[in-house]
Amino acid sequence: MQFATPKFTSGKEVVEYAKKNGVIFYDFRFTDIKGMWHHVSYYVNSVDEDTFKGIPFDGSSIARWQPINASDMQLHPEISTAFLDPFTADKTLVMFCDVWDIYKKQYYEKCPRSIAKKALEFMNKSGIADTAYFGPENEFFVFDSLRVRDEINCQYYELDSNEGIWNTHSEIPGTNNTGKINFNSGHRPGTKGGYFPVAPIDSQVDLRAEFVKTLEAIGMETFVVHHEVAQAQGEIGVKFGTLIEAADNVQKLKYIVKMVAHKHGKTATFMPKPLFGDNGNGMHVHISLWKGGKNLFAGDKYQGLSDFAFNYVGGVLKYARACAAFTNASTNSYKRLIPGFEAPSILAYSAQNRSASCRIPFVSGEKAKRVEFRFPDSTANPYLAFASLLMAGMAGVAEKIDPGPAREEDLFELSLDEIREKGIRQMPHTLREAMEEMLAQREIFKQGDVFTENFLQTYQHYKFETEIWPWEGRPHPYEFLTTYSC
């Protein structure tokens, strides 16, 4: 079944489509500060053209948004984003929404999607470019189960997967299509052994195929799907789009992967580092800026890039430690950014060198010229992450920042002393460090009133109160191995 819809241009078109095609519910979705999707549904007969002018909701019930004495807000649906939800029992038409501040009569300063739009407006007004293309690559794990306990006397989690090397001795019920119980195939990718194996080592071929078919059915274009390096890990390549399109696609991708896995009795996560000792999940982001139909990143310099492109790279590398507050937005993010797991923590660029935080892909033709930033992960709110990378890159262009020479060596092999001697900067080591960098460099993000001071302070307080302080105050199981007998 196809779940894509026409690109609507008016509320009248939407209402007519819904009536002609048996739509039962409208589902209006928006994104909070953390990046989580929220929704409110309306029965089809209750919606007319005026509905799309503003849908009321309680802003005080969304974390760190409005106080209860000023809680009325509105959702403004973007009707061109409509698609049919593949999972609901009743036909449901979904739309992305921006949040409207009814008191200031403008888009809400804490709405991530609106912040991303303001970044694009700033880009256009500055004359730097008229289009920003983003191509995120989101990695994920699909596990069979997760158990977690967080008690005063117990900190515990346990993940399980048929592909897990820890299950070589286990009796696993219902894992082969003959219906044989207590079956163990013996075929597993092993730690760091999961890149491109065929079945039966790759046990998730059909599951990933269903991910792709569902994405295509709602109108998203994919181009590659495969098992990734870690056990139970996968990746789906989605075609690039404008900044807003790409961020919207991240939300749809995460929703569909989680829902299809859930339908099959499994659990999917985009968490950066769920497994100790194996590779983690990244969200590599490909970027190019265009103006007047011309790719501004194409040129005659190193690897066919332009001075403009290198200034952009210089800006992102200079401000990457501040961007990390948005691109690597969890305490878990920094367990991924360590040597030995293909996660670049060193702020350098190179051609094809995946140990650098910025890679220049080998591509043919001017239209395909782009750069890839490899440090982000999927705990990022995509709207905030992409907006921060755009603001940092534009600062590099405005300041004509030279990123220095390319680093061709394997940066993972450098010792800490060598990194210091060469003057190479690194990503933050903790979310606390990233938040401190963000506030120290916040004037970059505040240009054009894209990120307001109020939003940045709210974001900082939210992260400290919900993640940093709770994480710092909890004993870790490993500490009992190293410290209990002191």
Automatic annotation (TrEMBL):
Binds 2 Mg(2+) ions per subunit. It holds the Pfam family Gln-synt_C. Belongs to the glutamine synthetase family. It is found in: Cytoplasm. Residues 21-104 form the GS beta-grasp domain. GO terms for cellular component: cytoplasm; membrane. Mg(2+) binds at E137, E139, E228, E235, H284, E372. It is an enzyme of class 6 (ligase). SUPFAM superfamilies: Glutamine synthetase, N-terminal domain, Glutamine synthetase/guanido kinase. ATP binds at H286, I287, S288, R354, K367. One of its GO terms (biological process) is nitrogen utilization. GO terms for molecular function: ATP binding; glutamine synthetase activity; metal ion binding. This is Glutamine synthetase. InterPro entries: Gln_synt_N, Gln_synt_N_sf, Gln_synth/guanido_kin_cat_dom, Gln_synth_cat_dom, Gln_synth_gly_rich_site, Gln_synth_I, Gln_synth_N_conserv_site. It comes from the Bacteria. The keyword Membrane does not apply. Its EC number is 6.3.1.2.
